[in-house]
Structures are given as C-alpha cells and as structure tokens.
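Let us begin with a simple case.
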Amino acid sequence: MAAIGVIRAGARSAKEMAAHSRAALDRPLPTGAELWVAVARDEARVLGAFERGPTSLPRPDPPVTRRGSGGPTVMVGSGTIHVVLSLSQPGALVACDQARIVNRYVRPVLRALSRNGTLAHFFGRDWVSVAKQPVGWVGFGHDATTRRSVFEAFVGLRSPIATTPRASFLGKQPGTLESIAGRDLDATRISNGIIDAYLEAYEASAVDAVAADEPRSEPDWSLDPPWAATGEEVIGLIGAGPDRFGVLRVGGDLLVSRDALARLEARVVDAPDEELARIVDETLAAPGVALDGVRSLKSIRDVIQRARHTP
C-alpha cells in the first residue's frame, strides 16, 4: 500500500500558503508523496513562480506574495482552500508523466467537491469548473532534472480566484462554491473530504507530516521592472526582459519545468538571434520537460528576441 504524508494545515495566512508552495519542490519527502491542505484566513494576490509583481502599486491591496508553481496570479481570500501535492516524481502514486500532472492529480479534488454537492469538472485548462464557472485554479511545479513534481490547487469557497478576465476562462465569469451552491459551506469539512479523496484514489495510508517553519519575511516582489516585451499564449501572458539586477529573464503565466526555463535564460544571453529558435526548442521541448498552455514555441522566441533589442 502506498503512503502519503498528510499535513492538515488548518487556517493559514496566504503568505504561509505561498511559502509552503515555494518550498514544495525541494522539501524532503520520506514517503514519496506529501499532501498539504490549508484554508486561507486572509487575502493576498498570489503570483505565479515566473510572473512579475505589480510595480505600479506602492502598497498593494491585497498584499502580494509568490507561490512555487507557474501560471497566472490567483486571488486568495478568507476561506480559499489550498491544496499542494508534492511528489518524488510524476508517477509516484499513479501512472503519469510530466505532461499529465494536473490531469491525473486533479481528480480527487473534483471528487471531493462533487461529493459536497458542487459537481466539479476539469476540461484541460488551468481551472476547475462548477456550474460552468471557474471556481478553482490548478497547475503544477516541476523540475526535469530531479523529476520532483507538485500539483497545486486553489479553490474559491467564498472569494473568486480571479477578479479580471483571462483568455483561459473563455469568457466565463469566475464564481465561488458558496455563490453557486446558494448556501454557506464548511471549509474544514471540504478540506477533510479532499484529504480522504486522495487517500481513497491511490489506496494509500496517511502518515502524519509536519509543516516546516515558514520564513517570517519574504522578498519584495515589486522590485523587478515590467517585462521589456510581452506576448499572448493559450495560458495567458508571456514575457521577457531584465530583472532588477539586469539579468534577462523569461516568464509570465508560463507553466514549465523550472530548471528548463533557467537553462533557456542562461543560453540566450549571448546567443545570436539566428540561434534563438534552436535554443528554445532544445531547452523547452527536451525529453522530460513539462510545458503547458503554449501553442507554439515561436511565441517564446519572439518575446526573447524583442526584449533583447528593447533599449
């Protein structure tokens, strides 16, 4: 029988949730899989791992923090349910490769929400649908070298996961579980149901795990300048440009293996323009690399090229 380390994290600040997410790809995994489920007790704008912070807001309201998985900003409010499944490799609990992390590991979340009376579906994009409305964001973190993987979800109990339109939503307005159900819902009951659904899905025993002490402070995510060049992809915005130290970075709403993106950034610094397409292909289309929501790698090459020629 498989074993899953379980952290019943209870009520946590959004910054504590984001800090756990940032550490998830590097945290020791004695059992090969570890599940964290928490409920937010406050608000935050949670940036994806490769996004730029809101430089135009001197005192962001709500506060800004950053998670470890890629993708777009997720709005967290009181009652938002946070799920992080850390894995030693994509197939730690079920037959799975790096391209199907979300597809395989979202299923217990869908089952738990449906058992609660809010029938949930996943249609291959980065959100969970209830009554044809986006109520949850889902994504992944991945390291192609170590194969460490993370499935992550935020479920909007009474606060929507986004307050502005996103191309990925296909024109649908985000909702919340409570607004759709038309009644108050118990976040603790749903959280426990999610844990039970994971244990049942993989016929696993639960091993009590302890959350690490999260850092008391975190970097100022607003110090990097806006992207020098941007474009649009299926997942959303992609961008390239120097960071606060003048180092060229590539990112935006990307869902991609973190080490593959780092290799891309290192290789394009001094490469001639005519080599960019080959470098992008060799890094992001390499065996074992996870990449989702990008229709064509040409779009990434183009933003890098434009960023390098922007004064």
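The second case is a distinct protein. As before, the sequence precedes its structure tokens.
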Amino acid sequence: MAPADGSSGPAHIEAAHAPPALPEPVSKPGRQRGFIDRAMTPRAPISVRARFLAGLSVWAVILLGWSALTYGGIMPDIFLPSPTAVIQRAIEMFGDGTIWPNIWSSVQVILLGFIISSVVAVPLGLLMGTYKIVQAALEPMVNFIRYLPVTAFVPLFILWIGLGLSQRVAIIIFGTFFQQLVMIMDVVRNVPDDMLNASYTLGSSRRDVLTHVILPAAKPGIIDTLRITMGWAWTYLVVAELVAADSGLGYMSMQAMRGFQVDKIFLAIGIIGILGLITDTCFRVLRARWAGWAA
C-alpha cells in the first residue's frame, strides 16, 4: 500500500536514510574570496606571484633594518658593516680572483663529505627501517653517537687523520651521517604495512617488496632527508675549516676576524648561504622529477 502522503515507499525510505548534506563554507555575502582569505586558509594554494612577493617582502624588511642600523649610525662598522661595504668587498675579491680558491675548497669539502655519507647512510638506513633485527643492533649505538658534539671530535680527527682535506671531510661525514641514518630509518618505517601485505598477497618475494615497494614509497622522504642534512653539512663546514685549514670560506672568516674585517666575514656568510640555497634548489628539482607523484 502506498503511503498516505502520496510518496513511494522505497524512495521515502531511501530519502530518510540518506546522509545529511555537507554544509557549505561560510562566506560574507556580496564578497568574493580574496587573497587574505586564501592565505589564511590552512594549506590553501597561492599563486606563484604571491609566493614570490611574500619571500621578497621578508628580504626587503631585513635589508631595510640592516640599512637603518648601519647608515643611521646605530651600529659601528666594526660590529656591523653596511650593505655597501659588503658589496664593495665582494666586487674587490671577485674581481681579483682571491675568493675563488676559497669557494672551490669549501665546495670540494662539502661534496666529498656529503656524498660519502649519503652513499653509506641511504642503504643502511633502508635496512634499519625494513628489518627489525638490523634496527635493534644499530639503533642504540647510532642514537648515542648522534648526540655527541662534532666540535669535540675536531682535535681527535687532527690526531688520527692529520691536517688537510681528509680531516675536514671527516668532520662533515661525522656531522651528517648519523643524522641521515636515523631520519632515513624513520622514513622507511612510515611506509604503510598495507602496501607490504598487499604485495605479499599478490605473490611478491621479500626482495621484491624491498626494491619495488618500500624503496619507491620511501624515495620522496629520502630525498627530503638528503636536502635537510645538506643544510647541516654547510653549517659544519665552518667548524671543519676554522682549525688547521689553509683555504675555504671558514678559513677566510677566521683570517678576517683577526684583522677586524667584518665585511669580509659577512661576505663569506652570504656566499655560504647562497651555495646552500643552490643545493637546496637542486634537491627540490630532483624530488619534483624523481618523486613528483608525492608532491
């Protein structure tokens, strides 16, 4: 028998059990969603132009503050050089070529130390994150060593290895390797177990699961780990070159400090920052090309 209100029975029941409609986002009447609304919405995308202007505005504020402190006479030149002084020093050192050997020396130390550390840390971290027995064997030792200060080992490296390039590379390796190991292990451990179980169900071997499931799924996180630890390698560079070095940006800073050439110190710091930004951009491009699906 049809219901008294004239509606069909099944349709009436289906409508009664249908989930409630999701509420529409609340917005002010008569106004379109503007830039501030988008910017203050969590994870809402912004345009390339807005991203560029936001970053540029922060640098403009820093430069204005620096200029006000120096050109306004608030800070003496011996403590804080003016932007003009740093630019003039850069023109001078790039013009006569005296800065290029220091840049190349620092880049060489960073590349050698970081590559050697990464070549060992990536497969070992992959094994630690995949096999519980490897993690149980190595994690206590790794967690102990990664909290040790790198600067405390500088005299020991000089005693064990001697002076020169090898000692500086060893400091970079020691400062980045154990951090890479723990971070890569955590990235691999975060691969969902459902992916592994589905692979076993489809007949994959343990080797196939490691090489065709775990490694590709962890690839974006591994690249991000390398990008982050590259920043740490640049910070350890100054530690490696402050003692018993005859070239490099850290060595240049130490020599400038002895002569109260603060503009030269700022130039070295700026070059390290620019080189670090270049390597960071390279890793971002690498991630976009090799793991663009995870963006």
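The chain has twelve helices and no strands. The longest helix spans residues 206-242.
Keep these points in mind for the review questions at the end of the chapter.
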